[in-house]
Amino acid sequence: xxxxxxxxxxxxxxxxxxxxxxxxxxxxxxxxxxxxxxxxxxxxxxxxxxxxxxxxxxxxxxxxxxxxxxxxxxxxxxxxxxxxxxxxxxxxxxxxxxxxxxxxxxxxxxxxxxxxxxxxxxxxxxxxxxxxxxxxxxxxxxxxxxxxxxxxxxxxxxxxxxxxxxxxxxxxxxxxxxxxxxxxxxxxxxxxxxxxxxxxxxxxxxxxxxxxxxxxxxxxxxxxxxxxxxxxxxxxxxxxxxxxxxxxxxxxxxxxxxxxxxxxxxxxxxxxxxxxxxxxxxxxxxxxxxxxxxxxxxxxxxxxxxxxxxxxxxxxxxxx
Length: 320
Known about the structure:
This protein is α/β, with parallel strands linked by helices. Helices cover 34% and strands 23% of the residues.
Protein backbone atom coordinates (compact mmCIF):
# COMPACT_ATOMS: atom_id res chain seq x y z
CA UNK A 1 0.00 0.00 0.00
CA UNK A 2 2.68 2.51 1.02
CA UNK A 3 6.37 2.46 0.15
CA UNK A 4 8.81 5.07 1.42
CA UNK A 5 12.18 4.70 -0.30
CA UNK A 6 15.45 6.50 0.48
CA UNK A 7 13.58 9.55 1.79
CA UNK A 8 15.83 12.43 2.89
CA UNK A 9 14.50 15.74 4.20
CA UNK A 10 16.36 18.94 5.06
CA UNK A 11 15.28 22.07 6.92
CA UNK A 12 17.00 25.33 6.04
CA UNK A 13 17.75 27.90 8.76
CA UNK A 14 19.99 30.75 9.81
CA UNK A 15 22.42 28.33 11.48
CA UNK A 16 22.66 26.07 8.44
CA UNK A 17 20.73 23.15 6.98
CA UNK A 18 19.44 20.40 9.25
CA UNK A 19 19.07 16.91 7.80
CA UNK A 20 15.97 15.66 9.59
CA UNK A 21 15.65 12.41 7.62
CA UNK A 22 18.42 10.41 5.95
CA UNK A 23 17.50 7.70 3.42
CA UNK A 24 14.45 6.43 5.30
CA UNK A 25 12.88 3.34 3.71
CA UNK A 26 9.94 1.17 4.77
CA UNK A 27 6.68 -0.34 3.53
CA UNK A 28 3.16 -0.63 4.92
CA UNK A 29 0.99 -3.49 3.68
CA UNK A 30 -2.80 -3.61 3.63
CA UNK A 31 -4.25 -4.27 7.07
CA UNK A 32 -0.86 -3.90 8.77
CA UNK A 33 0.02 -1.80 11.82
CA UNK A 34 3.57 -0.47 11.62
CA UNK A 35 5.12 1.16 14.69
CA UNK A 36 7.80 3.85 14.54
CA UNK A 37 9.68 4.34 17.81
CA UNK A 38 12.53 6.53 19.01
CA UNK A 39 13.42 9.50 21.18
CA UNK A 40 12.03 12.98 20.59
CA UNK A 41 13.81 14.51 17.61
CA UNK A 42 14.47 11.17 15.91
CA UNK A 43 12.38 12.07 12.83
CA UNK A 44 9.17 10.16 13.53
CA UNK A 45 6.74 13.06 13.07
CA UNK A 46 8.69 14.48 10.11
CA UNK A 47 8.24 11.11 8.40
CA UNK A 48 4.45 11.24 8.84
CA UNK A 49 4.22 14.88 7.74
CA UNK A 50 6.30 14.08 4.66
CA UNK A 51 3.79 11.41 3.64
CA UNK A 52 0.92 13.91 3.84
CA UNK A 53 2.92 16.76 2.28
CA UNK A 54 2.51 18.94 5.38
CA UNK A 55 6.13 19.90 5.99
CA UNK A 56 7.06 23.47 6.89
CA UNK A 57 7.96 25.90 4.10
CA UNK A 58 11.66 25.74 4.99
CA UNK A 59 11.68 21.95 4.48
CA UNK A 60 12.71 20.25 1.27
CA UNK A 61 12.80 16.63 0.18
CA UNK A 62 16.34 16.14 -1.15
CA UNK A 63 15.97 12.52 -2.28
CA UNK A 64 13.69 9.51 -2.36
CA UNK A 65 10.07 8.73 -3.10
CA UNK A 66 6.79 8.11 -1.26
CA UNK A 67 4.56 5.77 -3.25
CA UNK A 68 0.92 5.23 -2.26
CA UNK A 69 -1.03 2.69 -4.35
CA UNK A 70 1.34 3.23 -7.25
CA UNK A 71 1.40 7.05 -7.10
CA UNK A 72 4.48 9.01 -6.05
CA UNK A 73 3.03 11.50 -3.55
CA UNK A 74 6.01 13.83 -3.98
CA UNK A 75 5.05 14.54 -7.60
CA UNK A 76 1.37 15.36 -6.95
CA UNK A 77 0.01 18.90 -7.25
CA UNK A 78 -1.32 20.68 -4.16
CA UNK A 79 -4.88 20.03 -5.36
CA UNK A 80 -4.19 16.31 -5.74
CA UNK A 81 -2.58 16.17 -2.28
CA UNK A 82 -5.60 17.90 -0.70
CA UNK A 83 -7.92 15.37 -2.35
CA UNK A 84 -5.85 12.55 -0.85
CA UNK A 85 -5.62 13.91 2.71
CA UNK A 86 -8.47 12.75 4.87
CA UNK A 87 -10.21 10.84 2.10
CA UNK A 88 -7.49 8.23 1.51
CA UNK A 89 -4.90 9.01 4.20
CA UNK A 90 -6.05 10.24 7.61
CA UNK A 91 -3.93 11.58 10.45
CA UNK A 92 -4.36 11.68 14.21
CA UNK A 93 -2.22 14.53 15.46
CA UNK A 94 -0.31 14.49 18.74
CA UNK A 95 -2.21 17.33 20.41
CA UNK A 96 -5.99 17.21 19.81
CA UNK A 97 -6.56 20.83 20.85
CA UNK A 98 -4.41 22.05 17.96
CA UNK A 99 -6.18 19.71 15.52
CA UNK A 100 -9.68 20.96 16.40
CA UNK A 101 -11.15 24.38 15.61
CA UNK A 102 -11.60 26.04 19.03
CA UNK A 103 -14.69 28.10 18.10
CA UNK A 104 -16.60 25.49 16.09
CA UNK A 105 -18.86 22.85 17.60
CA UNK A 106 -17.73 19.24 17.29
CA UNK A 107 -20.65 18.10 15.14
CA UNK A 108 -20.19 20.93 12.65
CA UNK A 109 -16.46 20.23 12.32
CA UNK A 110 -17.08 16.57 11.60
CA UNK A 111 -19.97 17.28 9.24
CA UNK A 112 -17.88 19.66 7.14
CA UNK A 113 -15.16 17.06 6.67
CA UNK A 114 -17.70 14.36 5.78
CA UNK A 115 -19.55 16.66 3.39
CA UNK A 116 -16.32 17.52 1.59
CA UNK A 117 -15.05 13.97 1.21
CA UNK A 118 -18.34 12.15 0.58
CA UNK A 119 -20.36 14.80 -1.25
CA UNK A 120 -23.38 14.55 1.06
CA UNK A 121 -25.95 17.18 1.94
CA UNK A 122 -25.42 19.20 5.13
CA UNK A 123 -28.15 17.27 6.95
CA UNK A 124 -26.90 13.84 5.85
CA UNK A 125 -23.32 14.79 6.74
CA UNK A 126 -24.39 15.86 10.24
CA UNK A 127 -26.22 12.58 10.79
CA UNK A 128 -23.10 10.71 9.68
CA UNK A 129 -21.05 12.87 12.08
CA UNK A 130 -23.22 11.64 14.96
CA UNK A 131 -22.60 8.06 13.81
CA UNK A 132 -18.86 8.75 13.57
CA UNK A 133 -18.81 9.87 17.21
CA UNK A 134 -20.71 6.75 18.19
CA UNK A 135 -18.21 4.61 16.24
CA UNK A 136 -15.38 5.88 18.45
CA UNK A 137 -17.39 4.90 21.54
CA UNK A 138 -18.47 8.36 22.64
CA UNK A 139 -21.52 8.10 24.88
CA UNK A 140 -24.39 10.42 24.00
CA UNK A 141 -22.87 11.54 20.66
CA UNK A 142 -25.71 14.01 20.00
CA UNK A 143 -24.82 15.92 23.16
CA UNK A 144 -21.07 15.86 22.39
CA UNK A 145 -21.76 17.11 18.84
CA UNK A 146 -23.18 20.34 20.33
CA UNK A 147 -20.12 21.00 22.47
CA UNK A 148 -16.95 22.99 21.77
CA UNK A 149 -13.50 21.32 22.06
CA UNK A 150 -12.66 23.11 25.34
CA UNK A 151 -15.72 21.52 26.96
CA UNK A 152 -14.35 18.00 26.45
CA UNK A 153 -11.70 16.04 28.34
CA UNK A 154 -8.40 15.13 26.71
CA UNK A 155 -9.52 11.57 26.06
CA UNK A 156 -12.80 12.73 24.51
CA UNK A 157 -10.98 15.21 22.27
CA UNK A 158 -8.63 12.47 21.09
CA UNK A 159 -11.63 10.30 20.19
CA UNK A 160 -13.06 13.20 18.20
CA UNK A 161 -9.74 13.62 16.37
CA UNK A 162 -9.81 9.91 15.49
CA UNK A 163 -13.40 10.32 14.26
CA UNK A 164 -12.24 13.24 12.09
CA UNK A 165 -9.33 11.21 10.73
CA UNK A 166 -11.70 8.35 9.86
CA UNK A 167 -14.36 10.56 8.27
CA UNK A 168 -13.06 9.92 4.70
CA UNK A 169 -12.98 7.00 5.40
CA UNK A 170 -9.22 6.53 4.76
CA UNK A 171 -7.40 3.34 3.88
CA UNK A 172 -4.28 4.45 5.76
CA UNK A 173 -4.19 6.11 9.19
CA UNK A 174 -1.14 7.95 10.51
CA UNK A 175 -1.32 8.23 14.31
CA UNK A 176 1.30 10.56 15.82
CA UNK A 177 1.65 9.89 19.56
CA UNK A 178 -2.13 9.45 19.96
CA UNK A 179 -1.91 8.70 23.71
CA UNK A 180 0.40 11.54 24.80
CA UNK A 181 -0.67 13.29 28.04
CA UNK A 182 -3.54 10.84 28.63
CA UNK A 183 -3.86 8.74 31.78
CA UNK A 184 -3.24 4.99 31.57
CA UNK A 185 -6.91 4.00 31.40
CA UNK A 186 -7.69 6.43 28.57
CA UNK A 187 -4.50 5.40 26.77
CA UNK A 188 -5.67 1.80 26.77
CA UNK A 189 -9.08 2.79 25.39
CA UNK A 190 -7.55 4.87 22.57
CA UNK A 191 -5.19 2.06 21.59
CA UNK A 192 -8.02 -0.46 21.68
CA UNK A 193 -10.02 1.84 19.40
CA UNK A 194 -7.17 2.04 16.87
CA UNK A 195 -6.84 -1.76 16.92
CA UNK A 196 -10.60 -2.06 16.39
CA UNK A 197 -10.49 0.26 13.37
CA UNK A 198 -7.68 -1.87 11.96
CA UNK A 199 -9.47 -5.18 12.48
CA UNK A 200 -13.06 -4.23 11.64
CA UNK A 201 -12.50 -1.68 8.87
CA UNK A 202 -9.22 -3.01 7.48
CA UNK A 203 -7.43 0.32 7.95
CA UNK A 204 -3.64 0.16 7.72
CA UNK A 205 -1.94 2.13 10.50
CA UNK A 206 1.41 3.84 11.00
CA UNK A 207 1.68 4.35 14.77
CA UNK A 208 4.28 6.84 15.96
CA UNK A 209 5.24 6.50 19.61
CA UNK A 210 8.11 6.54 22.10
CA UNK A 211 6.45 3.76 24.10
CA UNK A 212 7.75 0.26 23.35
CA UNK A 213 4.97 -1.18 25.49
CA UNK A 214 2.41 0.26 23.08
CA UNK A 215 4.32 -1.17 20.12
CA UNK A 216 4.40 -4.65 21.67
CA UNK A 217 0.61 -4.63 22.10
CA UNK A 218 -0.45 -3.27 18.72
CA UNK A 219 2.14 -3.41 15.96
CA UNK A 220 2.87 -6.13 13.43
CA UNK A 221 6.16 -4.53 12.41
CA UNK A 222 8.43 -2.01 14.13
CA UNK A 223 10.89 0.60 12.89
CA UNK A 224 13.43 2.04 15.35
CA UNK A 225 14.57 5.57 14.42
CA UNK A 226 17.55 7.53 15.65
CA UNK A 227 18.79 10.91 14.39
CA UNK A 228 16.57 10.77 11.32
CA UNK A 229 17.59 7.25 10.29
CA UNK A 230 15.97 3.84 10.65
CA UNK A 231 18.58 1.82 12.52
CA UNK A 232 16.57 -1.41 13.03
CA UNK A 233 13.36 -2.84 11.59
CA UNK A 234 11.46 -6.11 11.45
CA UNK A 235 8.54 -8.01 12.87
CA UNK A 236 7.73 -6.57 16.29
CA UNK A 237 8.41 -9.79 18.19
CA UNK A 238 11.85 -10.11 16.53
CA UNK A 239 12.85 -6.51 17.21
CA UNK A 240 11.71 -6.58 20.85
CA UNK A 241 12.78 -10.13 21.73
CA UNK A 242 16.02 -10.24 19.74
CA UNK A 243 17.17 -6.61 19.39
CA UNK A 244 20.35 -6.26 17.34
CA UNK A 245 21.20 -2.56 17.63
CA UNK A 246 22.68 -1.18 20.88
CA UNK A 247 20.16 1.69 20.74
CA UNK A 248 17.19 -0.69 20.60
CA UNK A 249 18.65 -2.64 23.54
CA UNK A 250 19.15 0.60 25.47
CA UNK A 251 15.51 1.61 24.91
CA UNK A 252 14.32 -1.78 26.15
CA UNK A 253 16.62 -1.65 29.20
CA UNK A 254 15.11 1.71 30.14
CA UNK A 255 11.60 0.25 30.43
CA UNK A 256 10.35 0.36 34.06
CA UNK A 257 8.45 -2.93 33.64
CA UNK A 258 11.70 -4.83 33.13
CA UNK A 259 13.26 -3.63 36.38
CA UNK A 260 12.91 -4.92 39.92
CA UNK A 261 11.13 -2.49 42.29
CA UNK A 262 14.35 -1.34 43.99
CA UNK A 263 16.52 -1.37 40.88
CA UNK A 264 17.35 2.02 39.30
CA UNK A 265 16.30 2.64 35.71
CA UNK A 266 18.94 2.54 33.01
CA UNK A 267 19.52 5.77 31.10
CA UNK A 268 21.14 6.39 27.73
CA UNK A 269 24.05 8.79 28.30
CA UNK A 270 24.59 11.87 26.17
CA UNK A 271 22.12 13.31 23.68
CA UNK A 272 21.09 13.11 20.05
CA UNK A 273 23.76 14.80 17.86
CA UNK A 274 23.20 18.17 16.20
CA UNK A 275 21.77 17.19 12.83
CA UNK A 276 23.30 20.31 11.26
CA UNK A 277 26.65 18.61 11.76
CA UNK A 278 26.13 14.88 11.45
CA UNK A 279 28.98 12.66 12.69
CA UNK A 280 31.05 11.08 9.95
CA UNK A 281 30.30 7.57 11.14
CA UNK A 282 27.39 6.08 13.12
CA UNK A 283 25.26 8.79 14.74
CA UNK A 284 24.76 6.66 17.86
CA UNK A 285 28.48 5.92 18.36
CA UNK A 286 29.14 8.77 20.88
CA UNK A 287 26.48 7.26 23.20
CA UNK A 288 27.16 3.59 22.52
CA UNK A 289 28.87 1.40 25.11
CA UNK A 290 29.96 -1.05 22.39
CA UNK A 291 31.44 1.37 19.88
CA UNK A 292 34.50 0.40 17.83
CA UNK A 293 36.97 2.51 15.87
CA UNK A 294 35.09 1.89 12.61
CA UNK A 295 31.92 3.36 14.15
CA UNK A 296 33.56 6.80 14.24
CA UNK A 297 34.77 6.58 10.65
CA UNK A 298 32.01 5.09 8.54
CA UNK A 299 28.23 4.82 8.73
CA UNK A 300 27.09 1.17 8.52
CA UNK A 301 24.79 -0.06 5.77
CA UNK A 302 21.36 -1.56 6.43
CA UNK A 303 21.72 -5.37 6.35
CA UNK A 304 19.47 -8.34 7.01
CA UNK A 305 19.87 -10.27 10.26
CA UNK A 306 17.30 -12.96 9.49
CA UNK A 307 14.14 -13.06 7.38
CA UNK A 308 12.71 -9.51 7.46
CA UNK A 309 14.82 -8.32 10.40
CA UNK A 310 17.28 -5.56 9.39
CA UNK A 311 19.87 -3.57 11.34
CA UNK A 312 22.33 -0.75 10.66
CA UNK A 313 25.29 -1.55 12.92
CA UNK A 314 28.93 -2.65 12.63
CA UNK A 315 28.67 -5.22 15.45
CA UNK A 316 29.18 -8.76 14.21
CA UNK A 317 30.34 -7.67 10.73
CA UNK A 318 33.53 -7.81 8.79
CA UNK A 319 34.66 -4.21 8.40
CA UNK A 320 38.26 -4.40 7.29
